[in-house]
Design goal:
alpha/beta, Oxidized Rhodanese, domain 1, five-stranded parallel β-sheet, 10 helices
Length: 272
């Protein structure tokens, strides 16, 4: 199970082994997602913040959203009740841009029971399903973690591996940003425009339709069909966040991709 519908979530919302996580966030206003959660969210949902919970502090290298400290992440997951039997459902209101980050992180630390909410928060609203402003409290009483990470190191590559492998036969490097940023026509975030030489462009927004619903499995397979014979697919974006939407798409299509977590913002941090 990679995605669930609003109908499915509504029917299972009180399941004891279900944890719902609100991942709404805005790069333009880092507090917006938390405010939105406090005002209105899906019942039983907890909130995890891209900057505070799903990333580490920014340093000279590593990109704008370095992967979180895995002990800290595991502690936070334990506090909201996640264990190995839990199904985690993540949602946002940004066409999976942030929910997919949590989806990928959980897979990276060995938790397969995770899905995104297809259609996100807007999809839930469209059905008229209930909302709440009740902030979900942690019932974590023990100092012992109930969730322990089992890191899947094969799912990531660093800048050295990208440099060494991106031009090898059977290896493809995918840039997940919109075309204008890939081409260097427009760069609203990073100090240098352009892309990693040799990368092909598959914008993350084309994984869903304009309403935030995933395209069909057939469409996802069609999207990646030219990579059917590739030995390795490495995916990046600006900071390792929206690339996870493409990784989710690859998974739906039956492929395995690897994330370059630092992505373009890490790559250019080594430019003199």
């Amino acid at each position: 199970m990679i995605a669930v519908s609003a109908e499915w979530l509504f029917e299972h919302i009180d399941d004891s082994e279900l944890i719902i996580v609100d991942c709404r966030f805005s790069l333009n206003d880092s507090q917006l997602g938390k405010r939105q959660y406090q005002q209105s969210h899906i019942p039983n949902a907890h909130y995890l913040d891209l900057n505070q919970d799903l990333s580490s502090p920014v340093s000279e290298h590593g990109g704008r959203h370095p992967l979180p400290n895995l002990y800290d992440l595991s502690t936070k997951l334990s506090k909201i009740g996640v264990n190995r039997q839990t199904l985690v459902v993540a949602y946002d209101d940004s066409r999976l841009a942030y929910a997919a980050r949590l989806w990928w992180l959980l897979r990276y630390i060995g938790h397969e029971r995770v899905a995104v909410l297809d259609g996100g928060f807007s999809g839930w609203l469209s059905f008229g399903y209930p909302l709440t402003d009740e902030v979900k409290q942690s019932d974590f009483k023990s100092q012992n973690l109930i969730f322990s990470p089992q890191v899947q190191s094969q799912m990531v590559v660093d800048i050295t591996e990208v440099k060494n492998r991106k031009d090898l036969p059977g290896v493809v490097l995918v840039d997940s940003r919109e075309e204008e940023r890939y081409l260097g026509i427009r760069e609203p975030i990073d100090k240098i425009a352009g892309h990693i030489k040799g990368a092909v462009n598959y914008p993350w927004q084309s994984v869903t339709n304009s309403s935030g619903y995933l395209l069909s499995i057939e469409d996802q397979q069609q999207r990646w069909q030219e990579f059917a014979d590739c030995k390795e697919i490495i995916v990046y974006c600006g900071s390792g966040v929206t690339a996870c939407v493409n990784l989710l798409s690859l998974e739906l299509a039956g492929y395995k991709g690897k994330l370059y977590p630092g992505s373009w913002s890490d790559w250019i941090s080594y430019e003199s």
